[in-house]
Structure prediction request, 430 residues.
Amino acid sequence: MASVSDFVSEDKGAFSVTVNGFVPRTAYVPFNQGDSAAEVLVNEGDHVLEGQTIAKGKDSSVQATIPGIVESISVVQFPDGRQGKAAKINLGGTFSYVGKKHGKVNWQSFDASTILLMMAEKGLVNTFEGCESLSGQIKKLHAKSARILAVRLFDDDPSRVTERFIAQEYLKEIVEGSAVIAKAMKANGVVFVYDSKMALDLSDDQKSLFPMPMTNCGVSVEKYPAGFAHDIASSVKKMDAGAPFAEIGNRDLYIDAMTALAAYNAVVLSIPLMERFVHVTGDCLNAGAIMKVKIGTTMGDLAKQCGWFKQQPAKIVVNGIVTGFSVSSLSIPVTKLVKSVAFLPAKKALRQYDEQCIGCGDCRKICPVGLYPDMLFRSFQHGRDGTELEKQYAATSLLCTNCALCNAVCPSRLPLSETAMLLKGIDDEK
Prediction:
């Protein structure tokens, strides 16, 4: 484990309010957000309404985030390094959701299948780790899962504050959204995982939303990692809370505060997923903020709302300096995956080129689950031509929690964490 003081943002904890982002004149809305096989439902020149479904997959959908004309459909770069098609929508017309009052529906009268269908239709994704269709994840829960819903109320990456902020400001909605998800997955138990330095006091009315066992688990976030599935499961088991929580494991469903809030909006208020809270920060900006922005807003538009740059950024980091991604263009759009954007100057931008492994062993020493990341890297490099020992090590990639500490300490700047993720993907395809 590592001290979070090495990773925290310069404005960590400085936000008590959120700012509504400017409605962009142009939004670049990606079609594949949580479902890799989405069918495009619009053409160039079409007029779309705010909230209109423009792409639909098996377990998720994508909505137009602003009303207007689809100027073009083209391939764009996404924050996670991938490329894909997106609709370029030029603002025009009236809004269907912005500025409107939304009454609550009696979601408790819905059965699990109806809630799952609503989640898919409203474009819900789970951003606990990556970006995956929430209804799809629930449908794929392992038969041997304990069916525990774990709700994380703090950020897994200590350099951002988005989840913590949302949990503090929207706890009531998060709790009800978690109850919605628990019903959809037919959960046997629900646990709220929070920073032990912060109080979590749920009212009797909030607790009554859960017909299944519900508990809280305070964890110390002073050491990293603390917020990944492996860490949460370990902390819950140490509570000795009894059944069903003693059986929690990696096969259960883990969500973050942002996912629970989106579930509340989608099922309780009938609002599609069209906005994201984004922690915008960095020494290059004139100001930092927690902003509620339309999906499809560009990185450049985020910077403009923060007063633009006092110095040009050498690096743009999305979703945190430990577990996030580095992007190179201000034209890259905010997707459902994005939680934070940091504009960093040259003095804080690490060199990007990698070198040969020097065999220092630092990655092995810091790995919280005892893996050998360097051996995983070699196994991936050698592929089918690797030694039998390297192939055996490759199988251990399934234990990787994606904390990325190996990347942080590697003096050769090797993509060790990314390699483990690729190896896990290869194993899943077998």
Notes: The CA atoms of residues 207 and 214 lie 8 Å apart. The chain has a mean pLDDT of 89. DSSP finds 13 helices and 21 strands in the chain.
